[in-house]
Amino acid sequence: MASKSFDVVVIGGGPGGYIAAIRAAQLGFNTACIDEWQNAKGGPAPGGTCTNVGCIPSKALLQSSEHFEQANHHFKDHGIGLDNLSIDVPKMLARKDLVVKQNNDGILYLFKKNKVSFFHGRGSFAKATEGGYEISVAGKEAETLVAKHVIVATGSNARALPGVPFDEVNVLSNDGALKVGGVPKKLGVIGSGVIGLEMGSVWRRLGAEVTVLEALPTFLAAVDEQVAKEAHKAFTKQGLKIELGVKIGEIKNEAGGVTVAYTDAKGGAQSLAVDKLIVSIGRTPNTIGLNAEAVGLKLDERGAIVVDGDCKTNLPNVWAVGDVVRGPMLAHKAEEEGVAVAERIAGQHGHVNFNTIPWVIYTSPEIAWVGQTEQQLKAEGRAYKAGSFPFMANGRARALGDTTGFVKFLADAKTDEILGVHIVGPMASELIAEAVVAMEFKASAEDIARICHAHPSLSEATKEAALAVDKRTLNF
Ligand code: FAD
C-alpha cells in the first residue's frame, strides 16, 4: 500500500483538531485530518465531543427546554395563554440531532473548501521516520500517512465513578444524558460543575425532580463567590435541589432505577432513589488507540500529553492541543491552541492568552466570567476596586422579564486596569465578549465607562458596572 505524504497530519477532528487543520491549510500546508467519530449510520461525524455530545447538542436541548419553561411559567405574564402545553421529547431529540448533523456537515464542507484531506478512522503512530512520522489510519480502508508535523487533538472522555460504569440507560455520561427518551420523574446528578448544572437544568425545566450531589462544600468554587451565591439562590428557587459537601457511598444500578447511598454534610446517612443518574465528575484526557508508546510520546500521570507553553510535546514536530493537554477543557481554548500551533509550524508567533479565556455556564441565569475572581485577588493580596450593577435596574432586562443577577467589575486599585469581569444574568454568554476584548486590550474600567452603549440593551449593565468601580452609576 502506497503511503500518502503530508506537511501536517492532525489526529482528531474536534474543535482543536479541525480548526488546526483548516488554519494549517490556509497557511499553505498540505494537510490531512483524521477523525474516528461515527454517526448513527457509521459515517463520519467530525466536530468531536463538542459537536456530537457536548457544546452543541447541550445548547440545543437547553434552548428547547428554556422555550418550554417560558411557555409553562412566563408567557402568562405577557398575556399569552396556552392550554394543554406538552413536550414531545423524541421530537426535541430529533431537532437536536439535526443541529448536530448541520455542524458535522459544515465541517466536512470546510475541509473541502480549504483542501484538507479528511480520513475517517482511528489514527495511530506507527513509527518515527527520517524527517517525520508514519501514521496508520484504521477505518473502512486502511491507510498509511507520512507527516512532517503531527498535531494530536484526541480530546477527552467522561470520567466514571470507580465501580459504577456508564450503561447509558440508568447511569449516564454526557452522552446518555443527551439521549434520555422521556422526562425522568426523578433525576440524580453527581457533580455540580458546568455539565451537571446544564444537563440538570434541561430535565428540571421539562418536569423532572432533580437532585444534584456535590462533594465540595462550596457551590461553584471556581466562580466569583458573589456570583456563585446569586446563582445558587436562583437555581434553588427554580426547584433544583443542590446538596453540598456529600460523600458518595454505594451506588446500586437496578432495572427500576438507581439508588445512591451518601453521607450528607452533617454526617447523616442518606439515600437517593432516582430513575436516572447523570455522573458528571470531570473528564480524562484521551489517548486511547493513539499508540503513543510507539514513538515515545510523553504522558503525565493523568494521561494528558505533556506539552510546553507552545503546545510542543517531547518529540520534534509533534504538537498537542485541546482537552488532551493541560489547561481548561473548553472548545474555544482548543481552537485557539489549534490556530496558534498551525501558525508556529509556519514560523509565525501563534499566541494564546490564558488570562483572557472566557468561561460560560449556559444555565438560567447564565454565568460568565473572564479574569480573576474577588477571592483570588484577596488571596494574592492585590489592591483592587469592585463595582457591580444589577439587571433589576436595567430597562432591557425589565422588558425581557428577566432581571436576575448582575454584572461585576474588578479593577486594579491604582491603575484601574480591568482584572476580572463576572456576570450572572440574561445573555451573560454574549455580554462577556466585551469584557474579553477590553481585557485583551488592557482596558481600564474607565475606558468601558466612557464608551457609548446602545439603549435599551443588556450591555448597558456592563457600562454601569464599570461606572460603579468609580462609584458613579447613573441608573442605580
Ligand atoms: P474533542 O472535541 O473531544 O475531539 C476529539 C476528537 O478526536 C473526537 O472526534 C474523537 O473521536 C477523535 N479521536 C480521538 N482519538 C482518535 C484517534 N486515535 N484517531 C482518530 N480520531 C480520534 N466547551 C465549551 O467551550 N463550551 C461549552 O458550552 C461546552 N459544553 C460542553 C458540554 C458537554 C456536555 C461536554 C461533555 C463538554 C462541553 N464542552 C464545552 C467541552 C468541549 O466539548 C471540549 O473542551 C472540546 O470538545 C475539546 O475539543 P478537542 O478538540 O480537544 O477534543
UniProtKB/TrEMBL annotation:
Pfam families per UniProt: Pyr_redox_2, Pyr_redox_dim
Co-factor requirement: FAD
Domain FAD/NAD(P)-binding: from-to ranges: 6-338
Record localization: Cytoplasm
Catalytic activity: N(6)-[(R)-dihydrolipoyl]-L-lysyl-[protein] + NAD(+) = N(6)-[(R)-lipoyl]-L-lysyl-[protein] + NADH + H(+)
Alphabetized InterPro entries for the sequence: Class-I_Pyr_Nuc-Dis_Oxidored (IPR050151), FAD/NAD-bd_sf (IPR036188), FAD/NAD-binding_dom (IPR023753), FAD/NAD-linked_Rdtase_dimer_sf (IPR016156), Lipoamide_DH (IPR006258), Pyr_nuc-diS_OxRdtase (IPR001100), Pyr_nucl-diS_OxRdtase_dimer (IPR004099)
Domain Pyridine nucleotide-disulphide oxidoreductase dimerisation: 357-466
SUPFAM superfamilies, alphabetized: FAD/NAD(P)-binding domain (SSF51905), FAD/NAD-linked reductases, dimerisation (C-terminal) domain (SSF55424)
Predominant location: cytoplasm
Keywords, comma-separated and alphabetical: Cytoplasm, FAD, Flavoprotein, NAD, Oxidoreductase, Redox-active center
Source organism, top-level taxon: Bacteria
Keyword Iron-sulfur: no
Broad EC category: oxidoreductase
A molecular function GO annotation: dihydrolipoyl dehydrogenase (NADH) activity
Keyword Flavoprotein assigned: yes
Entry's cofactor comment: Binds 1 FAD per subunit.
Entry EC number(s): 1.8.1.4
Other noteworthy facts: The active site is a redox-active disulfide bond.
Family: Belongs to the class-I pyridine nucleotide-disulfide oxidoreductase family.
Entry protein name: Dihydrolipoyl dehydrogenase
Organism name: Aquincola tertiaricarbonis
